[in-house]
Amino acid sequence: MLCGSWRNRRRQPEEPPVPAQVATPVGLLSPPASQEGNIKRPGLRALKKMGLSEDEDVRAMLRGSRFCKIRSPTWQKERLYRLQEDGLSVWFQRRIPRAPSQHIFFVQHIEAIREGHQSEGLRHFGGAFEPARCLTIAFKGRRKNLDLVAPTAEEAQRWVRGLGKLRARLDAMSQRERLDQYPPGDTHTWIHSYLHRADSNRDSKMSFKEIKSLLRMVNVDMNDMYAYRLFKECDHSKNERLEGPEIEEFLRRLLKRPELEEIFHRYSGEDRVLSAPELLEFLEDQGEPKATLAHAQQLIHTYELNETAKQHELMTLDGFMMYLLSPEGAALDSAHTRVFQDMDQPLAHYFISSSHNTYLTDSQIGGPSSTEAYVRAFAQGCRCVELDCWEGPGGEPVIYHGHTFTSKILFRDVIQAVREHAFTVSPYPVVLSLENHCGLEQQAAMARHLHTILGDMLVTQTLDPQNPEELPSPERLKGRVLVKGKKLPATRSENGRILSEREEEDEEEEEEEEVGAVEQRRRAKQISPELSALAVYCCAARLQTLRPPPVPPQPCQVSSLSERKAKKLIREAGNSFVRHNARHLTRVYPLGLRMNSANYSPQEMWNSGCQLVALNFQTPGYEMDLNAGRFLVNGQCGYILKPVCLRSPNTTFDPECPGPPRTTLTIQVLTAQQLPKLNAEKPNSIVDPLVRIEIHGVPADCARKETNYVLNNGFNPRWGQTLQFQLRVPELALVRFVVEDYDATSPNDFVGQFTLPLSSLKQGYRHIHLLSKDGASLSPATLFVHICIRG
Fold first, then answer.
1. Is the pTM of this model over 0.70?
2. Which residues does the annotated region (Disordered) include (predicted)?
3. 188, 196, 336, 401: which one is catalytic?
4. How many angstroms separate the CA atoms of 603 and 614, rounded?
5. Rounded-to-integer distance, Cα 122 and Cα 148, Å
6. pLDDT tens across 473-524, in order?
7. What interhelical angle do 224-234 and 245-254 show, nearest 10?
8. Are 610 and 574 in contact (CB under 8 A)?
9. Catalytic annotation present for 401
10. 37 or 687: which carries more pLDDT confidence?
């Protein structure tokens, strides 16, 4: 095989082209190696600043490597991969040339690097290659894994080590260090790629025609008269060409942030620098909880770039801008990005990030099933995953969406993925929600695999013998796996038995059983003692009534409800349902009629205290934006402490009758910066952006308001419009910032969004760092707003 022998190598291609507009942070893109003249090459300098320019692994990556890319038993192609000089992007060869932006991937978009046969693709299709030569690059979002085989084990190790160093250095870089790499006197590095593309004759000089091309590339349709006036003001050589410092001046003036300058000058006075007391005044007006003189001095030390100013405890405009663009200056409270909530309360007191049909990577009719879907769910902080278990050949249970054309995966492979990946992002417990369609023999095989593979991770008995039925806390269950399944009554046959209709719980299974055979329905009502014993704290039980029974149900009983049934309970028994969920876990799942794996809004279910609100993680949309926003805080650990009104067993709260407004949220939408082009390869594609702010909470709080649109300017549009909302239950509210491209004749196109809990939204002047439809960063795209919360 070609990849195995590494023969017939093609001639190494030319230096890769520079990509068009892609979602990358300011300062990541460098000009190609062939570029010369007055436009400086910052690439190698970037690696020097990262302390990696002399690193042997990184230098080998800069030279490039030919890998065998594995997709299937028959699709195994040799491809060249090479680290770009910026140190943060990798160019790769394609058989059929495509748009430049589709020939690179970015180090910041890598989720994990796995060695050996540690992906589904390499386990199935890479058996002919020794594990030491194999590696997998897993990406954030929906991008597929990259399964590669190196010519030698040493070359594979160089890339594993090199990418690891680059990722670690990028994660460790402060906003200050990133700007230090590209000081204000030098053109922002990301613009170099566009300069190179706009410079049609490659003379490192820019005519007015080339400048107009540049403006279109960066999403600006500037008035010709204004653009030419700015061009002439920067053309100090009077030769109708901009070069070197003239280009830098043009770009600095283009990149000006007058709204930030206005705020800065309001506090700095005539000397145009902020002293520590003046910065403290700004912080107090921002509503910063830790606004002290010492904190102001620390911010100057962290973000100021001018050493002389820093020595005198002064902050310049550049330092002020860097602070406002940093995580400390963002809308999300940086203190909430760590685990900050009480994690010692019972499991029922938390919202728990939950996935439905976790094994699917596409629709539930004919989409593929994959263990990688579980890996990606865990990487997103998911703590409850679903396993649809069916009889498989050779006595091995399989997982797939029954009675459909979805592919099948082995139950034991999924459990192995749980062992390897469940706790890479969060240490808090994982719930395996079993939808069991197997007979007794294969149920016993499932129990055996759970014991053998998970070992001590698996909870097999109660932690507190004195209170065996009480739900433990996430803290006490760190690193443990819980099984949610059916439980045999205390008096049962040792070889298993058929549950009565009263004991059978799972409505989801019943819906699917209606289209199955009689034998499958019979098996679904059986439970083996081995599997029953593993349902310790999550015992599946039908929710018969919300009226208090003579004997209260035990807290370890978990109900599964379809979205329709849950909405009915919310509507007809709001407060009773809230009280039930204060003590018991409730799982909600999408209707089976959602054939394309569409989602429902999870907010309704959270309003009533439902903990396990299961969504199709593989389907992007506003529903998953809300889920990501809900679990964005508390260290993204997958557990969010419910508000007090949803935790008290005697609460009077009813989401349908929340009472009068008690909080006013006022948001002034000021500007946006560097919004991505919707069609990166189409030069004349310029967005007409508008901003919509949505409130998702109890029904009385739900609202959406939007600004006017700005014509033909995605680079630095200005609005200056104020939107106001009255809130009754602010502790449940999510705020979603959405940017769309206005279209008068058809629905607006999505540009970017960011969602977060109102309780984690900081007041004052803040940047909103936008995300794409699948949750990936759109950096450097931001909104700049002023936020005021009263009440």
1. yes
2. 1-39, 492-523
3. 401
4. 12
5. 8
6. 999 999 999 999 999 987 544 454 544 333 334 445 444 444 444 555 555 5
7. 140
8. no
9. yes
10. 687
